[in-house]
Amino acid sequence: MPTAEARVTIVENPSGYTLPESHRRYLLWGILFGFAALAVGVFQGFVQGLNYGGINIFSNLPGMRTYYQGLTLHAVLNVFVFPFALSNGWLALAVARSLGRNLNGFLLALSFWLLIGGSVLGGYAILAGKASVLYTFYPPLRAEWTFYAGAVLLVLSTWTTSAAQILALSAWKKEHRGERVPLLAFVSIATYVMWDIASMGVAIEVLGLLLPWSLNLLPGSDPLLSRALFWFTGHQIVYFWLLPLYVSWYTMIPRQVGGKLFSDTLARIAFVMFIVLMPVGFHHQYVDPGVNGYFKWSAGILTFAIFFPSLLTAFSVMYALEIGGRARGGKGILGWFWRIPWRDPSVSAQVLAMITFLPGGITGLMNASVDMNRLVHNTTFIPGHFHMTVGSAVALSYFGLAYWLIPYLTGRELWGKKLAVWQSWIYFVGVLVFARGEISGGLLGMPRRTAISMINYAPLPGWKLAGALTAIGGSMMFLAAILFFVILAMTLWTGRKTRPVVDLPFTSTVQGAAVSGNQLILDKISYWVFLSLALVALVYGPFLLTHFPPTLSAPPFMGY
């Protein structure tokens, strides 16, 4: 298919799109708010890293009452507020640009203010010491009601963005009957559809169980049911962190490196699989005695199945990188790799994130194995794994995305491009050192979520080296994050104004979207939602039928 035709499958109108000023303002504010949340969360992460190196500074931080208060703040800001804010802004822009149609301005504004409101409520509860319940906020640990209300508003902000996207798609389809949905819009909306389904678990848990429990409207809690509902969402949220970056890897990175996306159809299949193969949460409950083996094994099988769309992504991205590298003169089996435009900070950050994601994905499969999970469960192996996924594939990719997205939204050139390249490399090396320490320590039984700098017994052999590597790597990540925020601030304040603003770097495809045939069913997102819900019913239905009504007998444990 000619390139001109293929490009149309990415966006409706390749010639350009003007983002309304009010929309631009809310998208920019939301993204900057997300990075501000990350700044606070990263500092708490630095404190956590030093903790494993035997250095205790969290006891001296103003307002920090306990180790777990800081750990909760680190988790909530880094894995709820930051990715929610960035995905709301980035994918709302992606859908608008792809369809050539403005999203509903009221819904965009509402999404932003819901995000702010949820962050304020949840942040207040944590900083006041009334919500040291960690990322996994299921009972019997109980927080103040404001924490749960904040969680509700944060999820509502994502649903509001999703509604704006779906309304825009519906209007576009009425004007383009029989046409394929542009790829950039399809993968962006598919990401939110997946999350809309996945977030129902935590929505039911919070609204039906935790919020009324925190207001003393229920006599107690049902920890087993709450855990199941939480992990229905708690694993799939990983894909809500990751898929917005897959959108960039599929539709932006190929052009940025001088290559092309291999196949429009392959990209759509990957995102459809993430919608369908979603009920995998029970693999987080392998050691829970109240969960039948049927649920654990079904989730384990689906976890290995959902790894397949990531393999499709690896193929598509590697193809694009190789085409780009060879177009720049790369020779031999790997010679093309060194010809990638490494001096482009957006490219270097995202490609380094992809490299880090390889061991992150592999260690994730290890966690999904029943016997291996029993060995590493609740050890530092787990944060070693997810810091190579959300801590690198997501955070480092968002750094790279910001290096062109912030200039696009502000009309200012990126400040310090060479420094931005160095920032990515420092973070890359730091997260690998950090993960090496955490994973090796976990294999030696070093516990996660532990104030290890305060324990009064001798560490086991190997823990000191593992802790030192964790502290060194975490410090490098913190330094790199500081550099990023310096670059971001200087771009906003001193970046040179550019006119006209450069368009999104959307790619072209080698094999474009078919205009007829069986492939058209891929655009029928409602079909895939039905299949997803059917699979949810098969995996979770028997469990929920036997656990409703809930057994509200467990008393709360409150650390305040």
Describe this structure in words.
This is Cytochrome c oxidase subunit I. The chain is an all-alpha fold. The chain has one domain (19-546): Cytochrome C Oxidase, Chain A (Up-down Bundle), CATH 1.20.210.10. Helices cover 67% and strands 1% of the residues. The chain contains 20 helices and two strands. The chain has a two-stranded parallel sheet. Helix 3 packs antiparallel against helix 4 (105-127) and helix 4 runs antiparallel to helix 5 (145-175). It starts with a helix and ends in a 14-residue tail after the last helix.
Q: Give the strand content.
A: under 5%
- Give the name of the CATH superfamily: Cytochrome c oxidase-like, subunit I domain
What is the string of SSEs from the N terminus onward? HHHHHHHHHHEHHHHHHHHHEH
Total number of helices: 20
Derived structural class: mainly alpha
Any idea how many domains? 1
CATH topology: Cytochrome C Oxidase, Chain A
Radius of gyration: 23 Å
Please report the distance between the alpha carbons of the first and last residues.
Answer: 64 Å
Shape: globular
Total beta strands:
2
Q: What is the correct CATH architecture?
A: Up-down Bundle
Average pLDDT works out at 92
Strand order of the largest sheet: 1-2
Biggest pleated-sheet summary: 2 strands, parallel
Helix content: 55-70%
Low-confidence stretches: 1-8
GO molecular function, one term: heme binding
Keywords: Electron transport, Membrane, Oxidoreductase, Respiratory chain, Transmembrane, Transmembrane helix, Transport
Pfam family, one: COX1
InterPro entries: Cyt_c_oxase-like_su1_dom, Cyt_c_oxase-like_su1_sf, Cyt_C_Oxase_1
